[in-house]
TrEMBL record:
It comes from Apilactobacillus xinyiensis. Residues 26-191 form the FAD-binding PCMH-type domain. The gene is murB. This is UDP-N-acetylenolpyruvoylglucosamine reductase. The active site is at residues 170, 220, 290. NCBIfam families: murB, PRK13905.1. One of its GO terms (molecular function) is UDP-N-acetylmuramate dehydrogenase activity.
Amino acid sequence: MEDITKKLNVKFLRNEPLSNFTYTKTGGCADLVAFPKTLDDVSLISKYANKNNVPLTIIGNASNLIIKDGGIRGIVMILRDIKEIKKISDNSFVAGAGAAYIDASIFAQKHALSGLEFAAGIPGSVGGAVYMNAGAYGGETAQVIESVKVIDENGSIKDLSKVEMNFGYRHSLIQDKKYIVLAATFVLKSDDENLIQSRMDHFNALRFSKQPLNLPSCGSVFKRPEGHFAGKLIHDAGLQGFQLGGAQVSTKHAGFIVNVDHATATDYLDVIKHVQSTVYKNNKIHLETEVKIIGED
């Protein structure tokens, strides 16, 4: 991988602990971490990895992510510098994949555009939100997307329409393809700035009152089972406060697992498995993880 580090004017880190970047503060080392600043940088790194059969992993804000303690081989690209947000028409704007979703919602509010209020407290990146069709409080990313700019498996840049993105509950085409999200175009509705802000404040107040935002976590761990709420199933199973190692089912919201004492990724995974097995034993319902789990044991 020496060639790519010398060829590009990009920051690279070797054998870097990924716990420095994850919201859980866990995760092993990556062989090489790259911080591209331009779309061309992303394309060149992607083409290099493809040509040389080097594993390539993309990370945004790493907020809904668990990286195993064995780390990640090959190249990890962190897109936090691909973060420009700019208005392109009266009711639309484009945001880079590395832009914080919260910043996109703030940008929309300042331009009197409504529709992204639900994202006011979602800590992920725009790219991550597109990848998993992130949502909250009745809103989801698919509702406000017009198109997505991606790099395909050959390193070519192309635009995908909302229909082509095949959005579903916590799902998008990106999960099925080896594509990299570069940017997303949002289309919203005009509204009063103060009304938009009041809705954002309301959603954030709900989050602060219900979620353990004072501790490291990976956000909502499980998808919502049809006809049920994951948090309630976990609460009813008596698992709030359950702890293995430094990872604990939050006493504030059972749908969250928090790092209370120097947890490892293995601690997190062990807690997840215990929660899944207990809930299945009690209710015959399998809790599917919403959090993405990657890396080596």
